[in-house]
Each structure stands twice: as structure tokens, then as C-alpha cells.
Description:
By secondary structure, this protein is α/β, with parallel strands linked by helices. The chain has a single domain (2-219), classed as HUPs (Rossmann fold), CATH 3.40.50.620. It has helices at residues 36-50, 67-76, 94-108, 128-136, 189-195, 205-208, 245-255, and strands spanning 2-6, 9-11, 32-34, 55-61, 80-84, 113-117, 140-144, 146-150, 153-159, 164-170, 173-177, 200-203. The strands form three sheets. The protein has a seven-stranded parallel beta sheet with strand order 7-11-6-1-4-5-12, sandwiched between helices. A three-stranded antiparallel beta sheet has the order 8-9-10, with no helix packed on it. Strands 2-3 form a two-stranded antiparallel ribbon. Strand 8 (146-150) and strand 9 (153-159) form a beta hairpin. Helix 2 packs across helix 5 (189-195). The longest helix has 15 residues, at 36-50. It starts with a strand and ends with a helix.
Amino acid sequence: MNIVVCVKYVPDAQSDRTFTEDNTTDREGVDGLLSELDEYAVEEALKLVEAGEGEVTVVTVGPESAADAVKKSLQMGADKGVHILDDAIAGSDAPATSLVLAEAIKKIGTPDIVLTGMASTDGTMSVVPAMLAERLGLPQVTFASELTVDGGTAKIRRDGDTASETIESSLPALISVTDQINEPRYPSFKGIMAAKKKPVETWSLADLGVDAGQVGQANSWTEVLETTKRPPREQGEIVKDEGDGGTKLAEFLAAQKFI
């Protein structure tokens, strides 16, 4: 079974994330890492291959530093990686990103499964998997909390607020997974050393046959008009209970329009 996993290099949520002058996310002036939600997709791909045979290829789109997302995936156990690197991609929105990923996957070959996380931890839009499935002409089976593959069929469990659904799809298919599906492994020393010898290809837009006029901030369908830095946290209000604490609490919640 051949699996392609789409991964993303994102700013570390623990760092002070900022925006650049053109209102795009600053990916150079902040520490970054493999998106936590994509680790679950990598882990699930590794489990599927370890249960049978095949290989796992990870693909990412981003600046030079995004190579770290591929590196971490290879250390976890993926077999090879592809890094789409082109300055013209900077500022691309979800439709443009899905276009680049789709063309990269077509160039890689015809995988049995394309796996993604449920969303990126920086954009949190959850729309790229659906767009990617449309571009590849694949059935999409999204938000999987459990995944089983039997022959040419994939079955997932999707957990909602009030019920769980079981969904089946023929393969090949695109599947996105949630953070409930598994527990991602930590790279072992053996895995870290082995990753140094695994193949990683770097492709440009020209290698994919994608026109630069289809991607980038200037050609995006959406635009961020303004950003405002998050204000510092203010000290909370202490309510002294003198027999009327419940009333004061209710008045506070009402004033904040929580009730």
C-alpha cells in the first residue's frame, strides 16, 4: 500500500506568533515545527504500512524551514519526502495550496490513500482536504477517529457531538484524521539516524507545471485586510463573598453577556 501524507510546517503555538507587513503569517521570524495535527496522519500511515507492506511519502509546501516538517516525519518512520519550495507560493490561500499539493501528488504517482490532518494548527480552516480530494477526483472520507482498511475498502468512524457515523469508501481515497485516532510515536535514535539517508526531493512550481499566476498572495481568493496584536492579559476581578457572592457572580456574568 502506497500512502502520501500531506504535512505542514507551522509556527510554534508556544511562541509569540506575529504577522508580516503584508498581513501574512510570519514563518521566518518565529520557531516552527511539524503541525501537531499532521503527526496523527503520519502515525496512521505508518501503522497501515507496518500492518502490511508499502511505503509512506510525505509532502509539504513552504519556505526552506518547512524542510523540518519532512525531516520530523522521516524520523518517525516515513520512507521519503517531497518539499515544494518556490517563492511565488508565499501567501497562497487554501485553493492555491490545494492546487500545488494536487499537482505534487500526481507527480509522485497514484497512491492508494492520501492522508491529512483534520486542519492546520495555524489556519484551522479544515477545507484543504476537501479541495484536494476534488482536484484529485478522489472520494473524501474526513474527520476519522478510527480507520480500518480491508483490501480495497477503507472504513472510518466519525465522532460528532451527538452521534458517531461509520463511513466506507473504495480506494484510492483521501482521508483526514482527528487527534483521537492514535498516539503519535516519538522519533527514536535509530529513526533519527535512518532519516539522514532517506531521499527528499525539492520541487518548484515549474517542476509541477503550475503557473505562478495561479498561486501566491496576489492571486488568492481571500485577503487579510488588517491584523491587531493580542492585548496583554489583564488582572482578574476578585469577588468577596459576604453572603451575596452568588448575586455578584451572576451580575458579572450578565454584564459580560455570558448569560
